[in-house]
Amino acid sequence: MIELYLLLIFMIIGAIVAVEIRSLLSSVVAVGVVGFALCVVFFILRAPDVAITQLIVEIIALVILIRVTGIKRDVTEMRGEQRELITQGVSVGAVIALAVFFFLAIRLLPEFGKPLMSLSKDYFSPLIKSGAINRVASVLLDFRAYDTLGEATVLFTAVVGAIAILRKRGRKKVEEEDREE
Amino acid sequence: MKEGMTVIVKTITRFVGVMIMLFGVYIVLHGHLSPGGGFAGGVLLASGFILLTLAFGKDVSLKILPQWLASALESVGALIFLGMALLGFAGGFFFLNLLPKGEAGELMSAGIIPLCNIGIGIKVGAALFAVFMVLIMLRIRPGKEE
């Protein structure tokens, strides 16, 4: 269990570095550190399905993020004295409220690992109901297939939205309108 | 102007790119037997194409998988998954696994689960590739970004 805590501390340090560092590329690398450490954490917790997905998605996300850092843009900091104070106050208040409710909710949860698999007993019964040896696949695509359908819909919508915003035709029209003004 | 990266990257990509895509297909097809599944395999397939794009330039990968084909494949994958779900109505309710289960552990087993995995794999792979290509196109026009 000690390696798990070491990895979690490592991830927290990586996240703080990613937020605080000045160079964009170093920040992206620090984000990658957090993601890959999370992948190792999943392996330690014996969830190879999630670990594989996390690893591959992290690679693609890093490629896209590193590509984004190459774009030359005005990234000068925006500072407003009063507004900054308000924003900080609001965020600190939100964090405190979240922490209070989180601790209240945690007290109601059952102890970790107890009772043993009361909810998922049927999914992991020795009799294989769905016919799939990989129990994660049988939960994802048989017992809880509605969740997967929702997830697929979310991804579909996200991709359609991204293509609609970034496609050439849409951008051209906006540029022409800008010129007319 | 020569597109893409150096000859070292191109040579390695020739060997590794095929293996990455093959591994993606393996992960999708064995989703009901070993860790992995439609989503992970689909992202692997997309990452193979992304490696091809980065190494050889966008024209090479667009020749293999044009933009319109990627969009069409995404819809086809989603329709396969939805079709498998609707197939359950033949036996009673949505997402009913009514195809023959076969023997557990065989490649041809588990009813609709492998078919759903294939649908999700096609959908996710084509979708991520399409998004990446759209992002690549954005960079081609310097000085016109708002």
From TrEMBL, chain A:
Signal peptide from the UniProt entry: none
Q: How does it sit in the membrane?
A: Multi-pass membrane protein
Q: Where in the cell is it found?
A: Cell membrane
Provide the primary localization: membrane
Q: Which residues form a coiled coil?
A: none
Top-level lineage group: Bacteria
Q: Which positions fall inside the MrpA C-terminal/MbhE domain?
A: 128-168
GO CC annotation = plasma membrane
InterPro entries associated with the record = CPA3_Na-H_Antiporter_A (IPR050616), MrpA_C/MbhD (IPR025383), MrpA_C/MbhE (IPR046806), Nuo/plastoQ_OxRdtase_6_NuoJ (IPR042106)
Question: Sorted alphabetically, which keywords does the UniProt record give?
Answer: Cell membrane, Membrane, Transmembrane, Transmembrane helix, Transport
Enumerate the transmembrane spans.
6-21, 28-45, 51-68, 89-109, 148-166
Outline the extent of the MrpA C-terminal/MbhD domain.
Answer: 9-66
Q: Which Gene3D superfamilies match?
A: NADH-ubiquinone/plastoquinone oxidoreductase chain 6, subunit NuoJ (1.20.120.1200)
Q: What is this protein called?
A: Uncharacterized protein
Organism, as annotated: candidate division WOR-1 bacterium DG_54_3
TrEMBL record, chain B:
Q: Does the keyword Cell membrane apply?
A: yes
The protein's location, in the record's own words, is: Cell membrane
Q: Name one Pfam family in it.
A: MnhB
Q: Which InterPro entries match?
A: CPA3_antiporter_subunitB, MnhB
Domain annotation Na+/H+ antiporter MnhB subunit-related protein: ranges = 8-128
Membrane topology value? Multi-pass membrane protein
What this protein is called in its record is: Na+/H+ antiporter MnhB subunit-related protein domain-containing protein
- Source organism: candidate division WOR-1 bacterium DG_54_3
